[in-house]
C-alpha cells in the first residue's frame, strides 16, 4: 500500500493537485532550498529522491531523511509561514510539482481529503522523529538495519531497495561512529544481505535484513 502523500489521494484529488501546481525539474546535486530560506512553497516529488538535511551552527550536516516519489516536502513552512527548517538537495534527477502556500490552502479547502492526507503526513513524520530518537539506544546492528529499512527507496519495477547516502551520512543518522557503522555494514555485506557502493547501500534481501537485525 502506498502511504505517501500522493498515494493517499484519489485520482480526482491528484488531478486537482496537478492543475494547481507548477512542474519543476532538478539535476542531480542541485540545491532545491537552503535551511532558513523564507520560501513557503511545497514540493511533491514525482520522480527521483531528495535528501533532507539540517546544519549545525558549526556547519556539520545531519541528514534527516530521503524523500521519494509521492512524498510532499516543505509542508511546515507552508502551514505556519516560518522559514525552512532544513535544506533540500536532489540526490538524482528530480521531477515534481510545486505549489505555493496559497495554492495549497485553497486546494485543502476545496478538497478536504487533501488536507487529511497532509495531516497524516505531519503526524507520521512526528512519529518517525520519535522512533529515530529511540533507535540511538538500541544494539548497533538493530539500529543500522532499522535506519536502512526506513530510508530505502525502491523503484516500482526494481526488487533492490537503495539507500543513497554515504557512510558518513548514515553514521550521523544512526548516531554512531563511522567505524562502528562500517563494522555493522561488513557483517550484513558478508551475509549477502546488502551491497555497499561508493555513495549508498543496496538492500538485496529485505526479509533477511529484518530477521538478522531483530526487526
UniProtKB/TrEMBL annotation:
Residue span, HTH crp-type domain: 138-207
UniProt GO molecular function: DNA binding; DNA-binding transcription factor activity
SUPFAM superfamilies the record matches: cAMP-binding domain-like, Winged helix' DNA-binding domain
Coiled coil region boundaries: none
Keywords recorded for this protein, A-Z: DNA-binding, Transcription, Transcription regulation
Gene3D superfamilies attached to this UniProt entry: Jelly Rolls
Presence of keyword Iron: no
Cellular component GO terms held in the UniProt record: cytosol
Boundaries of every Cyclic nucleotide-binding domain copy: 5-107
Keyword Cell membrane: no
PANTHER family in the record: CRP FAMILY TRANSCRIPTIONAL REGULATORY PROTEIN, HTH-TYPE TRANSCRIPTIONAL REGULATOR ARCR
Protein name, per record: Crp/Fnr family transcriptional regulator
Organism: Lentzea guizhouensis
Amino acid at each position: 500500500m502506498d502511504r505517501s502523500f500522493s498515494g493517499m489521494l484519489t485520482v480526482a484529488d491528484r488531478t486537482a493537485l496537478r492543475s494547481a501546481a507548477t512542474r519543476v525539474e532538478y539535476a542531480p546535486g542541485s540545491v532545491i532550498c537552503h535551511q532558513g530560506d523564507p520560501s513557503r512553497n511545497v514540493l511533491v516529488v514525482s520522480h527521483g529522491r531528495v535528501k533532507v538535511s539540517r546544519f549545525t551552527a558549526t556547519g556539520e550536516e545531519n541528514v534527516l531523511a530521503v524523500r521519494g516519489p509521492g512524498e510532499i516536502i516543505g509542508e511546515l513552512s507552508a502551514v505556519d509561514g516560518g522559514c525552512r527548517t532544513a535544506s533540500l538537495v536532489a540526490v538524482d534527477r528530480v521531477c515534481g510539482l510545486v505549489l505555493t502556500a496559497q495554492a495549497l490552502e485553497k486546494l485543502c479547502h476545496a478538497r478536504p481529503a487533501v488536507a487529511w492526507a497532509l495531516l497524516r503526513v505531519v503526524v507520521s513524520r512526528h512519529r518517525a522523529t520519535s522512533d529515530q530518537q529511540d533507535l540511538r539506544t538500541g544494539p548497533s546492528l538493530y539500529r543500522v538495519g532499522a535506519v536502512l529499512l526506513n530510508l530505502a527507496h525502491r523503484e516500482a519495477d526494481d526488487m533492490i531497495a537503495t539507500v543513497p547516502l554515504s557512510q558518513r551520512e548514515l553514521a550521523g543518522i544512526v548516531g554512531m561512529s563511522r567505524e562502528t557503522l562500517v563494522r555493522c555494514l561488513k557483517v550484513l555485506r558478508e551475509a549477502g544481505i546488502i551491497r555497499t557502493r561508493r555513495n549508498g547501500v543496496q538492500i538485496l534481501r529485505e526479509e533477511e535484513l529484518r530477521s538478522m537485525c531483530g526487526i
